Amino acid sequence: MPIVKVIEVIAGSEKSFDDATNNALLEASKTVRNIKSIYINEMKAIVENNKIVSYGVNAKISFEIEDQ
Predict the structure, then answer these.
(1) Number of neighbours of residue 25 by Cβ within 10 angstroms
(2) How far apart are CA 61 and CA 33, in angstroms?
(3) Positions of the chain with pLDDT under 50
(4) E-assigned strands of 1-68?
């Protein structure tokens, strides 16, 4: 039975929450293998002059630990 580990990451984007989520996954995948899922725990937007200027997500990424 595989062991699954979860890490928590924070990522942002100037485009959208979807892009921020993809950025979280892209950055995590640079150092983590066997990613199985991403869960968005929290979303946040920064507003300036009545316009959203950046989007942020707090994400939990799960991945299987490889057998050694």
Answers:
(1) 15
(2) 11
(3) none
(4) 4-13, 35-48, 51-64
Helices (H), 1-68: 17-29
Tell me the fold of 4-64: Dodecin subunit-like (3.30.1660)
Q: What is the pLDDT of residue 68?
A: 66
Domains of the chain by residue range: 4-64
The string over 29-43, giving b where at least 16 C-beta atoms fall within 10 Å of a residue's C-beta and e elsewhere, is eeeeeeeeebeeeee
Report pLDDT for 37: 97
Q: Cβ contacts of residue 55 below 8 Å, gap of 6+?
A: 12, 13, 14, 15, 16, 17, 19, 20, 43, 44, 45, 46
